[in-house]
What we know:
Elements: E1 6-13, H1 18-29, E2 34-40, E3 45-50, H2 57-66, E4 70-79, H3 86-97, E5 102-108, E6 113-118, E7 130-131, E8 138-142, E9 156-157
Antiparallel strand pairs: 1-3, 1-4, 2-3, 4-6, 4-8, 5-6, 7-9
Amino acid sequence: MTKVLVDMTLPISGMSCASCVSHVEGALKELSSVSNVVVNLATNKANLSYDPQLVKVDDMRRALEDVGYAIVVSELTLDVRGMTCASCVAHVEGALKELDGVTSAIVNLGLGTAKVVYIPGVVSISRLGMKPRNAVKARMPWTGNVKPVRKKSNARAVI
Length: 159
């Protein structure tokens, strides 16, 4: 069976020197099926190849967290139209969570919104199925939990 490697760029927070770069590269290289790891201090990004069948983005998050760094995420609140029941909420949440790079999706039927936490560069705003309007994204380190956002987006989606 042939491995299918996917190229990815992860935004990393907490790096300040060459030693940090070495720690981040080492943590990612220790994961099975992660290769071609190159970390750039100036851009605070890690470029790598990985097999999504064997390693997940959450594994990368934990490995980086273990050495003191985090993957930067952004959060958007989307307007979602046409939902009428809890089943609609489950379908929208499920569709969003299946996208590579989406770390969290919480849909509110009453408000007609979806709060999406995602990794910029791994999943794009257009891939989320939305057209941003005055898109201002809050950026924060991803530690596995949804954190409050300092800024909100006026993005809209028709899902």
